[in-house]
Amino acid sequence: VHPNVSQGCQGGCATCSDYNGCLSCKPRLFFVLERIGMKQIGVCLSSCPSGYYGTRYPDINKCAKCKADCDTCFTRNFCTKCKSGFYLYSGKCLEKCPDGLEANNHTMECTSIVHCETSEWSPWSPCTKKGKTCGFKRGNEVRVREIVQHPSAKGNPCPATSESRKCTVQRKRCQKEGKGKKNREEKRKKSNKDESKETRQESKGRAARRQNREQRENNNKTQPKKRKAPNKEQDLAPVDTAH
Length: 243
Hints:
This is R-spondin-3. Residues 116-171 form the Spondin-like TSP1 domain. One of its GO terms (molecular function) is signaling receptor binding. Residues 169-243 are annotated as: Disordered. The protein is of the alpha+beta class. Among the domains are: 7-65, Hormone Receptor, Insulin-like Growth Factor Receptor 1, Chain A, domain 2 (Hormone Receptor, Insulin-like Growth Factor Receptor 1, Chain A domain 2); 70-112, Ribbon (Hormone Receptor, Insulin-like Growth Factor Receptor 1, Chain A domain 2); 117-168, TSP-1 type 1 repeat. Helices cover 21% and strands 33% of the residues. The chain has helices at 177-222, 232-235, and strands at residues 5-6, 13-17, 21-25, 30-36, 39-45, 52-56, 61-65, 70-75, 78-82, 87-89, 92-94, 101-104, 109-112, 117-118, 138-144, 147-149, 162-168. The strands form 8 sheets. The protein has a 3-stranded antiparallel beta sheet, with no helix packed on it. A two-stranded antiparallel ribbon has the order 4-5. A two-stranded antiparallel sheet has the order 6-7. Strand 4 (30-36) and strand 5 (39-45) form a beta hairpin. The longest helix is centred in the last third of the chain and has 46 residues, at 177-222. It is elongated. It starts with a strand and ends in an 8-residue tail after the last helix.
């Protein structure tokens, strides 16, 4: 044992020295050498830093360096993230993606080329001309489809999503919307007016009948009863003068 080895170390070290830092680590910690200028110092960490991968052995757990083009790696031959300027593909860091793949500058990975996909065409629309479906013989009809998968950078672009073709229909007159609306409005007003007139006439009739009835009742109350007229036959009867 080196004379400078100490047993009372801190920072996860099991053994250490004043000159070299940690010489061994406590259980489950990883030993890694950090370079400071021309000097290397041993440290003990719970996980390996960027650019290193961990290996476990019965006597010590160590952090080993990834390849020069790897930023992080699972093993020396399997990268999980590449350094700037490289694209990750199947655990390797490449300057250029293989054929059939394209570079994704957002994830810095080689990904499959995605081509555009569209839905089926919709049925043809009614034959129209200038937004109308009447008043013409020849017009146009259209159909559309939707994009269900947008392409990647190297994928096939999307085709047209709408088509138009000439169409022929039997000519028919267009009803003037303003005139028809005006006629409907006039009919409605006339109907309301007739209904109001009938309602007013009925009200007047009821009021007149009620007034006549009340007048008759008042007359019957104020006029005296008429005396019964004498019987003319009795008045003209002959007078007995025998006595």
